[in-house]
Design a protein that fits this description.
Length: 315
Amino acid sequence: METTNNSFQREFLLLGFSDQPQLERILFVIILTFYVLNLLGNSAIILVSYLDPKLHTPMYFFLSNLSCVDICFTTSVAPQLLVTMNKKDKSMSYGGCVAQLYVAMGLGSSECILLAVMAYDRYAAVCRPLHYTTIMHPQLCASLAGIAWFSGLVTSLIQCSLTVQLPLCGHRKLDHIFCEVPVLIKLACVDTTFNEAELFVASVVFLIVPVSLILVSYGFITQAVLRIKSAAGRRKAFGTCSSHLVVVIIFYGTIIFMYLQPAKSSSKNQGKFVSLFYTIVTPLLNPIIYTLRNKDVKGALKTLVMGNALGSEKL
């Protein structure tokens, strides 16, 4: 029995959308395109934030961290998913699944905290403009970013360690797009009440609490903006914050749907598409929203491109 159980645990079958071959082929092209654009867009944000002195501000420091998280988060899911979708054998090693579980959970949790930190930064910029540089000093910014990364690591170690200890009794078919905690809890052959309760508590801490803080921050921001007499000033303030709010709504909306419900309640296809959205689609929205709606980033990108073009001509 022990040998049989170990042989089952050596690999999983990551089914994904294999029951719909035509949809799987279409999704393969879409996911590959989104992944490449995600790498290019987020890398561009990190590059211009580092090279342009005008962007050496707390906002772009946190934005660079968010872009880094998004690149790593999508990379923890997309390549394996593309490989699995492109072959008949849907197998994935047990070690690969566990590694993906830890990495994706940690990065996703870090992004939850980082978005809340960015909301606080916007609150300080709009509501306390005269004291902004004093409040958001470099040491505080580094500490807040460090807390976001470290909290993701801690919750991943706790949550995933509890999940991988669940006996699967030979079950190895994962009807999902990647190895995720709620999916593995469904696969367990024992009572998972404790794991579901622990997942719910972690979800409240990393989803509900940050969302609440973000909404409170934007409540204060809205009040401050409405007090601005200049219409141009109001538009600029709303434009600065609206891009962050769009990312927040889309990211938290989809991930809350996945995690804040009983582990055995959501339909399989529904869960797949929701997970696909917050792991593949949402990370691409970050560079699109921040570059298309932000004059500073667009200006830095133009300067960088023109500088490279002039350098090439001289050579």
